[in-house]
Specification:
heterodimer; A: 9-stranded mixed β-sheet; 27% helix; B: alpha/beta; Rossmann fold; 9-stranded mixed β-sheet; two-stranded antiparallel ribbon; binds flavin-adenine dinucleotide
């Protein structure tokens, strides 16, 4: 069975859930192997093995972590040349997509981004134009490079051989031209990352101000979810821009999306329409967001949301 | 300082976008075109950097003749001149071909900075800036929410999931900027009038040393096999809050096993 390479998304060896999803998906396409770039691989090996990695390629030269994007693309390009895998799967994050783009040029391959599924014959499914159109696309040239959105596959453990192999790469001059001089972590508490979260609770103009996000955050915390925002809310400075969901913000596809005080403009829907279950709380019964709601309540969010939070806490406790 | 700013004409985001039943590419004829909104931030950033460094801004676009409207908009905001790559052979080009064409148009012209918006609102791939950097062998400084140019040194804040990375390089560099990095200016009446006289160089792929076999739909390294409208979401239940709205949602969430 041909190898399918999966680029590991991790923070200092703490493997992100999307990696486990991609290993699970890779298993349906061939033999999954993980490609780990950076520090902390020792902490990651057990998890990667548990989720089916046959080989774990580790590139941990300190130089690789000093530059954004390009080193990962060059490690993958070298492995594509050496191992002739059937495909390369990369998490569809901002960085993952850029890695895929650079890899496609180096490997002379076609690239498909934002897949929500990949069939055994490597046909990728994409959801485009804000989730209104489903496209099936296939790479016809070179080793297919496909980025896959978080939450597209349910991760399932199934132990692999987990054979570690060290990879050494000499970076191109181009890859070394940009240098990371500092990494700044902004406080976001214990909440899951927006694009990875299984549950997202969002607030819009209807929350009325920065304080209004308090009720949204409390509900998110009761459910163990992430907080999102509409552009009206981020434009007003009520919530930081990196939490914006929509056309020019993040695309999320959680199991559960709860929209509070959001009207449902086409540009907002573009970022959340593929959520599995959508709950809406809005005081305007005519708000277009109700058209895509699985369950909606017409009412004032300041009454409905705290009651819901209390009820969730009670039932979970 | 010489700055290239790459812009793209896209269908207006309020318009319904469709794929053409024939060749499965985006139907651009039936909808109004506008400048990709994120490119407005790129043009503004280029103008601000040029103003602070007595620089020159050249607009670069690849797209059909109609994309001239978008070029004019960038010129009326204040850019100095433009290169418009239009060629029938380019229809249906994928990211590999697009990055090749842009890189060839930029290469060898002495640009210190090449600035992009971080994604287009139609294709939404976010890969072209990285691919152009790869092709040019230039520093990649993408997803910037802050750009600082001091002489040859360019510093950005690259937005990450956890906050941001400070990334630094010597020019030439390829930059992409995110929404809200600045407040894009509106073209003034004077700017609109002046734009009419600014030079737009029309370029075909032959001028760039590119052969028709390298670009367009036939050369695309990935193919759309089929497409269909997403099945409409099944109509949900909507209730009016009469004091128990929160509890009713909780009941629904319990039934769906979320709690
Ligand atoms: C190029 C472009 C890109 C864009 N990108 C994005 C994007 O990425 N993300 C995005 O979100 N938008 C985006 N927009 C903006 C989008 O068009 C809308 O303006 C925006 O989504 C509106 O946000 P909202 O729903 O919070 O506000 P509004 O449309 O003002 O809706 C507020 C809603 O809150 C309800 N409400 C008010 N008070 C209460 C209350 N007490 N209880 C319950 N409900 C209440 C109201 O009934 C109303 O429905 C973009 C626009 C353009 C042109």
């Amino acid at each position: 069975m041909a190898e399918v390479l999966v680029l590991v998304d991790h923070v200092d060896g703490a493997v992100k859930k999307v990696t486990l999803e991609l290993l699970t998906l890779a298993r349906s396409l061939g033999e999954p192997s993980a490609v780990f770039v950076g520090d902390g691989s020792d902490a990651a090996i057990a998890t990667l093995t548990e989720y089916g990695a046959a080989n774990i390629y580790v590139a941990d030269d300190a130089e690789l972590g000093k530059h954004p994007v390009a080193p990962k693309a060059e490690v993958l390009a070298q492995l594509v040349a050496e191992k002739s895998p059937a495909a390369v799967l990369i998490p569809s994050t901002t960085e993952g997509k850029e890695v895929a783009g650079r890899l496609a040029i180096r490997a002379g391959s076609g690239v498909i981004t934002d897949a929500v599924g990949v069939d055994p014959d490597l046909t990728a499914t994409q959801s485009v134009f804000g989730g209104t159109v489903i496209v099936k696309a296939k790479v016809g040239t070179g080793t297919p490079v496909i980025t896959v959105r978080p939450n597209s596959t349910a991760p399932e453990a199934s132990a692999g051989a987990g054979a570690k192999e060290a990879v050494s790469v000499s970076l191109s001059d181009g890859a070394k031209k940009a240098t990371i001089t500092n990494k700044v972590t902004e406080e976001k508490g214990a909440r899951p990352e927006l694009t990875e979260a299984a549950i997202v609770v969002s607030g819009g103009r209807g929350v009325g101000g920065p304080e209004g996000f308090g009720v949204v955050e409390q509900l998110a915390d009761a459910l163990g979810g992430a907080v999102g925002a509409s552009r009206a809310a981020t434009d007003a400075g009520w919530y930081p821009h990196q939490y914006q969901v929509g056309q020019t913000g993040k695309t999320v596809s959680p199991q559960l999306y709860i929209a509070n005080g959001i009207s449902g403009a086409i540009q907002h829907r573009a970022g959340m329409q593929t959520s599995k279950t959508i709950i809406v709380i809005n005081k305007d019964p005519e708000a277009p967001i109700f058209e895509i709601a699985d369950y909606g309540v017409v009412g004032d969010l300041f009454n409905v949301v705290p009651q819901l939070t209390e009820e969730v806490t009670k039932r979970k406790g | 300082m010489k700055i290239a700013v790459c812009v793209k004409q896209v269908p207006d985001t309020w318009a319904e976008k469709k794929l053409d039943g024939g060749d499965k590419t985006l139907d651009r004829e039936s909808v109004d075109g506008v400048m990709n909104e994120l490119d407005e931030y790129a043009v503004e950033e280029a103008l601000q950097i040029a103003e602070a460094n007595s620089g020159e801004v050249v607009v670069v676009t690849m797209g059909p003749d109609k994309a001239t409207e978008t070029v004019r908009k960038a010129l009326s905001m204040g850019a100095d001149s433009a290169i418009h790559i239009a060629d029938a052979a380019l229809h249906g080009s994928d990211a590999l071909a697009t990055s090749l064409v842009l890189a060839k148009a930029i290469e060898g012209k002495g640009f210190d900075l090449v600035i992009f918006g971080s994604e287009s609102t139609d294709a939404r791939m976010s890969v072209i800036p990285a691919m152009v950097a790869e092709r040019l062998g230039a520093a990649q400084l993408t997803f910037a929410n802050k750009v600082e140019v001091t002489g040859e040194t360019v510093k950005i804040q690259r937005v990450t999931d956890y906050g941001y990375d400070e990334v630094e390089a010597a020019s030439p560099a390829v930059i992409s900027v995110v929404e809200k990095i600045n407040e894009p200016r509106y073209p003034s009446f004077k700017g609109i009038m002046a734009a009419k006289k600014k030079p737009i160089e029309a370029v075909g792929i032959g001028d760039l040393g590119i052969d028709a076999g390298q670009v367009g739909l036939a050369a695309a390294a990935s193919q759309v096999e089929s497409f269909e409208s997403a099945p409409p979401r099944a109509a949900g239940t909507v209730v009016t809050d009469e004091g128990q709205g929160g509890v009713q949602i909780a009941d629904y969430l319990s039934a769906q096993k979320f709690i």
